[in-house]
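Action item from last week, closing it out:
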Amino acid sequence: MKTLFLKCIGLAISSRVKFLVGAFVIFLGLSVAQASQASTGTVILAKGVVTATNATQQSRVLAKGGGIEEGDVVNTANKSFAVIRMLDNTKLTLKPNTTIAIGAFNIKEGEEEGCINLVKGGLRTVTGLIGQRKPESFNVDTPIASIGIRGTDFITRICAGEECLEDENSLSFGGTDQNSQAAGVAEDINKNLPARNRLA
């Protein structure tokens, strides 16, 4: 069985399991004692069904004001979306049918680090303090590519078949289209084609 490794939190996902959100299994190379107990982020908007599964595979429904911690796997269902503000003020907007895993977030000066694993779907990122202080230390990882900072506002998608091509001119996040002239870079990771960059 082929295994894909998402480096920023030591997350291993089988290529078969990554398509089955309900059977998604996460492995963290951290003990419970090492894991941060403080909220790494806060849900500032949730529409539809938005859930999080922690490192011990306990699931919870997320609503406005809910906390997000390192190691959480956040999922949006069909016709659902969420906006999360991380502790460094990075803002994450999750498209419907999206799964992300929250990696390390450290805002201590000189030790800044931020990492998000995009497992499926689409994610808009507006970077905060980490991206401003140390942009090389903020990454969005996918099963086939690691994306470094290309600006303060960028979009990452994982597409099956030609989904990205069908959505060439705009991305819908919670009913709001991000115009093709919006700032930032869209990183389209197509499962059947090499990774490529183009304007959102």
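Closing note: The helical segments are 129-133, 163-166.
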